């Protein structure tokens, strides 16, 4: 029988601990969130982040901007970089067409980069130095370690090579002494690689992509994907119903990785505040 890794409950406990710590602080952490455009999914994410901040005692400042030029967005970021009351800055992605994601990310002061996306912080992660770590991979690692503390010597497969999940995830697993493989759209014979993995992290954005026959018996499977099917139901990148029975532990979608991403955002905000 597999173990279901309930990210929802785990994140609730993380938030409780954060609230306990923040309640004792005289000066509360401050997170600035910038939302440009009217992407419906982004609007929901930002609302959820606002609600989560409120719950633990973090002050959130949300800048909702229907439309602006990139130069105007950079000016707002510059202002927030200089504002000593602001501990963390987050620009909600994706940005509207015509804006350069990397230019905007790199405009954020690395010491206020709550998402951990700045090249300075990604570099620190690669070198094993301390700094804010991208929220989703950080949450994934906590979920993995909630069912298996020592990961030394295990084979880990990360499916997806994005700068937001895949690459930082691989670095975190490497730091835990795993032997790490990153697979992507050009990978040859993915099912064979998957069969050798003790840990599989799927982050490709393809519904039910990872199949039962790919997965090794007793593997830990972390499903980062969130896809909406034609019937309106949500599903992950893993064919959960069929894969679960082969696993030692697996995350569901929803209530798996998603809630942990927001919990780690709060944790990063507190970390930057204390710094």
Structural class: alpha/beta
Order of helices and strands: EHEHEHEHHHEHEHEEEEHEH
**Estimated share of beta-strand residues:** 15-25%
Radius of gyration: 19 Å
Proportion in helices: 40-55%
Oligomer: single chain
Number of helices, where a helix is a run of at least 4 consecutive DSSP H or I residues: 10
Low-pLDDT regions: none
Report the mean per-residue pLDDT as an integer. 96
Q: How many β-strand stretches?
A: 11
Large-scale geometry: globular
- Strand arrangement, major sheet: 1-11-8-7-5-6
Determine the N-to-C terminus distance. 43 Å
Task: Explain the overall architecture.
With 275 residues, the chain is an alpha/beta fold. The protein is built from ten helices and eleven strands. The strands form three sheets. A six-stranded parallel beta sheet has the order 1-11-8-7-5-6. It has a three-stranded parallel beta sheet with strand order 3-2-4, with helices on both faces. Strand 5 (155-159), helix 7 and strand 6 form a beta-alpha-beta unit. Helix 1 runs parallel beside helix 10, helix 2 (40-56) packs across helix 10 (257-274) and helix 6 (135-147) packs across helix 10 (257-274). The longest helix is centred in the last third of the chain and has 18 residues, at 257-274. The model has no long low-confidence stretch (mean pLDDT 96).
Question: What's the SSE blueprint?
Answer:
Layout (H helix, E strand, L loop, with lengths): L2 E2 L2 H17 L6 E7 L3 H17 L2 E7 L4 H13 L5 E4 L9 H7 L11 H9 L7 H13 L7 E5 L6 H10 L3 E5 L6 H6 L3 E4 L16 E5 L3 E2 L5 E2 L4 H4 L3 E4 L6 H18 L1
